[in-house]
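User: ok so my PI wants both of these folded by tonight, can you help

Assistant: No problem, let's get them done. Here's the first:
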Amino acid sequence: MFGCLVAGRLVQAAPQQVAEDKFVFDLPDYENINHVVVFMLGTLPFPEGMGGSVYFCYPDQSGMAVWQLLGFVTNEKPSAIFKISGLKSGKGSQHPFGAMNLPQTPTVAQIGISVELLESLAQQTPVANAAVSSVDSFTEFTQKMLDNFYNFASSFAVSQAQMTPNPSEAFIPASVVLKW
């Protein structure tokens, strides 16, 4: 029903079923993973009104499992890309895998999928920074560059009372740069 893909690795298409409505994929050497793709194989859709919450689990320093909600997949949204590289230092959240005794080793993380009602999926809040930006890298670079330019230019701002006349220098109001 589900697949999991990490760049540079083989596709995992056979999750371990740990309960009737819960599945997990092992992610060995998770410290070197930046993004994970979770997708439906297309062989079996979710039952009507159901979808799957996607969780990331990694062992903390004491070896305890830390689960974080990444997002979801549904029949209408059968795949999703999640950024997990920045999540390894965050806090865990409530999850449906709590009562299960899933084995954890220090270098293996897990992706968990819990089949739930669509209404409950809509009420869940994924961990921040898990979703991959949909803006292309050039646009993102340009936005950051212009923000940086404005911050730099506005650091030299002075009021009209503080200005000393200098006929060889042109002054551009900050409002013009901001409007642009």
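One down. Here's the second:
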Amino acid sequence: LLSSLYLSHAVKVSAVEVNTPEEMFVENGTDAKLPCTFTSVEVISSAASVSWSFQPEGAATRISFFYYSNGKSYPGKDIPFKDRITWAGDLNKKDASITISNMQFRDNGTYICDVKNPPDIVVKPGEIRVRVVEK
């Protein structure tokens, strides 16, 4: 009996829960803060990381464009977000938000926020459908 109790306990895995709004409307040419918060039963460690990716409207593939780890942000160098991404979060406050400046119609699509906080593992990343609209 003891060994079976031990096994069932060892299999339990904790998870990070990521929270984002489902949809956002952003005016063309303005800055957009993409909110992403998370919960984790583990202490936020130096191994915690955040990655953001983008799936353009109608596209089948995602583009990774931002990574944050160890207090440093690593914005992707490629178009479409070159020089437009700013880290707006604070992992100690369980905030993984970013800001994208000068939003354009080509930025329409789904933004995916993925948080890792080992040993916690993410079950489901947060997804925000962004619609850029006329001013």
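DSSP finds one helix and twelve strands in the chain. The chain has one domain: 22-133. Good luck tonight!
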